[in-house]
Amino acid sequence: MSRQQELWALSATELAHRYRHGSLTPLAVVRDILERIDAVNPRLTAVVARRDDAVLAEAQAATHRFAKAHPLSPLDGIPLTVKDSLFLADLPTTCGTPALADYRPGHDELAAARARAAGALILGKTNVPEFANDGYTANPLFGVTGNPWAPELTPGGSSGGAVAAVAAGMGPLAIAQDGGGSIRRPASHTGLVGLKPSLSAWPRQHALPGLLLDFDCIGPVGRTVADVRLLFDAVRGASLADRSSQAAAWAAAARRPPAAAKALRILYVEHLNANPLDRQIAASCRAAVRQLAALGHSVEDGALPLDVHFVLQAWPEIGQVGLAAMFEQQPDWEAQASLKYRAAADAGRRISGARVWQIMERVHRLRRESAAMFERFDLIAMPAAAALPWPAHEAYPTHIDGQEVGPRGHAVYTGWVNAAGLPGLALPAAPSREGLPIGLQLIGPFGADDLLLDIGVAYEAAAPWADRWPTL
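RE: above sequence
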């Protein structure tokens, strides 16, 4: 379905173009998007907190800036949402749990602060699973988030509210979070572009306690690669508050100019070890990889030349230890947490320090081995998720391609990328027979975020998707 004439359906880059040329104002766009949220959010529960009066006033101020030809940045006047696991100074950060129902830390997460300073218009907060710690999106405060393509199905998690908002036209961009695939898998389930940046390419400051060592990254979600790049560029850059962000900035600078114009060596990994993959996803991703080959790149099929089995095996323990550590700092949060999170924290308390040290050593080894892998290949391509969207109230699909799987069976392709600190970009591929979105994931070496985005732009030009809209 084409939505060319609807203001809420315009891309962020198109909005920026029209603002500059005076054919559209931020105030008109925000008014239209707020009406869109009123119309479709009750079916989806994507946006869970709004700042209508404030954002309208900010849109008016942005409109005045454009009238004087003095925008703050290319992001000025662009509406977006922020995931409810990230701090905003003027809205609660509930992280989907009753203990934080009115938790107001009084400052923005650094990424949100930078977006605000660039003139972005923050519409509100988007739904998450409790503690942003699941691959679907439901919590005791706000309930279940539905997928705009099929509201009875999940958009995934933990950035399910973020992707549902963008996919349904409730803002062209979202600031989301990815600790083990929580941007890339939901983007793939909703037909969007999602970037998990290199570790600390978006610095972290003013944040909830991390549950997954240093795996958590903040990143952009949008309908097009150009939109994602617009937000990524506005927020990126080193900060003294996050020392590892200086390494990310150095690595990005060392890789410029990007090598997208040359033929790249791409390894396509269809199956990760013996883990099952939905056959429709396999067919769609294989077609997408053929498109990359048609663009002139050298594509090789094969196994991932890394041993990621240990990371997949240890993943539950990492989250359990993280919960135990968080609850030790905030015992009131544990008292009001759902039973499964209290049980997970109890399990985390029984994991020895020696085991945690072993996990950290293996993560460091994975990062070294990943660097060596990219001496042979420029990019890795693989599915973004192993399963199509499943019923929205269920935590995970129990079977994939006829095989029984556990809680992370659908998520095997993404978590190792976080552990390795690498950038990963989810791009829409051809939908399933039922019309459900499917995503291809491109993974690059540390600091290669620009290269991924350049390849994404070329791929999108050859296989465009921006006119695909769900019917709501």
